[in-house]
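Second opinion, please. Pick holes in both lines of this record:
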Amino acid sequence: MTVSSTGPNGAPGAARRSDATRSAILAAARERFAADGYERATIRAIAKDARIDPSMVMRYYGNKDGLFAAAVAIDLRLPALAAVPRDEVGRALVAHFLALWEENEELTAVLRVGVTNRAGAERMQGIFRDQLLSVARQVCPDPEQVPARAALCAAQLLGLALTRYVLRFPPTVALAREEIVAWLAPTVQRYLTAPAP
């Protein structure tokens, strides 16, 4: 089966232009949400950044909520834990999240928005619920405690991200990655695998 590169009007390349327009809108939206937060970011400013008419943003995404949801569709790319020794899971997760936060500005944008806006908070909750819970299920000793354990891990990881990448507390920013892993990994490990208190 072949896929046509023509758009609905039959013009060659219309589908590619549509994809390019969507990509430009999403890139502009991510930057604008990260810089201005959800409330202050406007469709008009995002369209200007993407060098398109604001009506095109509305055509593709409907409204600001739809655009935000599309712009922050984040895959945490959590590591497969089957090959990780059980007593090293905390270290693996902290190292993974630290690398992810430093490579992915979208996460910082979602966190910034999440602390001030309900839509952002719900998006962040969904990202962690849908992805971190499955990791916790793989290693937690008591299935009924998985949600609480995953929530405690999220508190540590998001607290680090908030103080290092959003609020930029100087002592937190100054820590080397290896230091953060050394400090935080035992706590995350305890939350995931230690007997419940």
About this structure: The longest helix spans residues 14-40. The chain is about 70% helix and 0% strand. The radius of gyration is 20 Å. The chain has two domains: 14-71, 86-193.
